[in-house]
Design a protein that fits this description.
single chain; transmembrane helix; transmembrane; about 450 residues
Length: about 450
Amino acid sequence: MRQHLYIFYAFVFLLNVVHVFWPNTVLFTIIGLLGIIMTAISFPRADRVFRTLGIILVIAGTFFFLSSDATIAEIPRFFAGNVGILFLVSMLPWMNSAVKAGRYNKLLQSLLGRNVSGLGPLYVRSEMTMVSLAAFLNLSSATISQDLLREQLKDVQTKVKNSFILMATLRGYSLALLWSPLEVLLATSIFITGADYIQVLPWMLLVAALGLTFDSLIGKLMFRRHQVDFSEKVNRGQPTGKLVQFILALVLFLSVVVFLGNVIELDFLFSVTVSILPFALVWALLIGRRRSFWKIGWPSWKRSTNHLSNFIVLLLTLSFLTESLTASPYLSYLQDPIVALAGSPLLIMLFIQAAFLVLTLLGVHPIATMGIFGGVGGLLIESFSPVTLTVLLATSAIATVPSAPYGLIVTITSVALRMNPYQIVLRNLPYSILLGFLGIAVALLTTAF
């Protein structure tokens, strides 16, 4: 039965697609009921750490649910909120298959390893490569880059290799999110403040540049003692034309996502999800790799979808917690400190950064925290200009991404590296705090202009 779970999961994802185009309460409830069944099936198959997290999230969600006015009939809908994210996770292997079929992973290995004598310089190049990939591929960039680095560093001690990969990829990913117009957290902060993206962009690029500079220096110093010879592992003869071809494909993929989001007006997450398979297939056809694409992609997709247990347990129980918290009276209590700090801009900035970080560590998605501050947006606008507030909110939210124990990117990394999510959090927490402070510094700088 386990080998055919992908059929059931694909059916649930198909219902989610139908719901996007035909919003219906009954259909959403059915998706939620199927989500509960998915959770029940996946729970005994999930790793111990995810079973533990799932139990904690359900207990916390139940507490908030009992304190709310929500009815038992609404519980299934509370489990349906993250099915779209699961759909995205299940589609990621198709993009990776196109990259492997076109042998672009060899090209990227060449770029990562060329003229590099050790892990210190490789860290800088890896992080910059991750920033470039994440700007186009979003979550797909994590799996592609991590696969490449695992192969590149297969002879390196496991502890050092895992630290290198989780730092370079997660931190580089967050730096790309800071300025990407497609990033949901940035878009949400702009929606709350009413700021102009073009006015915000230079300041967000400044935060990203400072973050990359500081973290590259830190990473280079941390790994400078580890000298590894890549000369026998890297093919240095990759043609320039293939690099141009790869960049063109990434730009076209971004264009498709922008078209679906801005012209067809689909949700960003859904736009990325439904674009992956058609785009990857057309890409494989154009480069004459259709047969390789299917040969790699179909078994990879089935295997990946059959083994979604960790993601299902985490994301669906997290959806229950988030929805229960939103419906409970405890949500309003989180807004009270903002009112108390009115008139002290720096204290408000520090509180906002701390709130994002603490709530993220407790399992509250930054989008939910953003909604909390959106509820007092009028009060915050009295203390800050729209640009300043946007820089503050966006940076504080995105800084938590590498340190979110229940976040999708951390979960993907924990599964790939077979690590406890909290080990990843501890390694990246100093970076999240540093990036948050850089965001506050740049937000203060905007007040001078």
